[in-house]
Amino acid sequence: MIYTVKEGRGLNIVISNKSDAPIYEQIKEQICLAIIRDELAEGEMLPSIRALAHDLKISVITTMRAYNELEAEGFIATMQGKGCFVLPKNKEHIQEQKLKEIERHFAEAIACGNSVGITKAELKKILDILLKE
């Protein structure tokens, strides 16, 4: 089942029960990507933990874990009694997140190729062709 919540400017969170990733990780990754892609601006307030949990029909503890990890990674800050806000972007951190996303896509492509018997050489050839375009 997929749940969607829209809050603020451009925040769209989709939770999939079919995903291998835990729900808190799905939330964290989607908010992180929204920040990196400037869908959430510096200083913008995120939905409250309770409101997001209610809208997504999940536990407050799950939402809190996602927010705590975003805070630990330097994407958001919590101001007691005011809420959670997007922090200024750290360029090195954003580049690291982009590299992780690229690696994930490569891993998916390799797994897809392996499932139909595509060799490493063929995968490299496909990558070379795409890089030339």
Brief digest:
By secondary structure, the chain is of the alpha+beta class. Helix content is 55%, strand content 15%. It is elongated.
Describe the protein's architecture and organization.
- It is a single chain.
- With 133 residues, this protein is α+β, with helices and mostly antiparallel strands.
- 55% of the residues lie in helices and 15% in strands.
- It has five helices and four strands.
- The chain has helices at 23-36, 49-56, 60-72, 91-115, 120-132; strands spanning 2-7, 11-16, 76-79, 83-86.
- The protein has a two-stranded antiparallel ribbon.
- Helix 1 (23-36) packs across helix 3 and helix 2 (49-56) crosses helix 3 (60-72).
- The chain is elongated, with a radius of gyration of 18 Å.
- 18% of the residues are buried.
- The model has no long low-confidence stretch (mean pLDDT 87).
Measure the end-to-end span. Answer: 38 Å
What does the average pLDDT come to? 87
SSE run: EEHHHEEHH
Strand arrangement across the biggest beta sheet:
1-2
**What class do helices, strands and sheet pairing give?**
alpha+beta
By DSSP (H or I, 4+ residues per run), the number of helices equals: 5
Overall 3D geometry?
elongated
The helicity comes to 40-55%
Number of strands: 4
Strand proportion: 15-25%
Biggest pleated sheet: 2 strands, antiparallel
Instruction: Using the CA coordinates, give the radius of gyration.
Output: 18 Å
Q: Give the uncertain stretches in residue-range form.
A: none
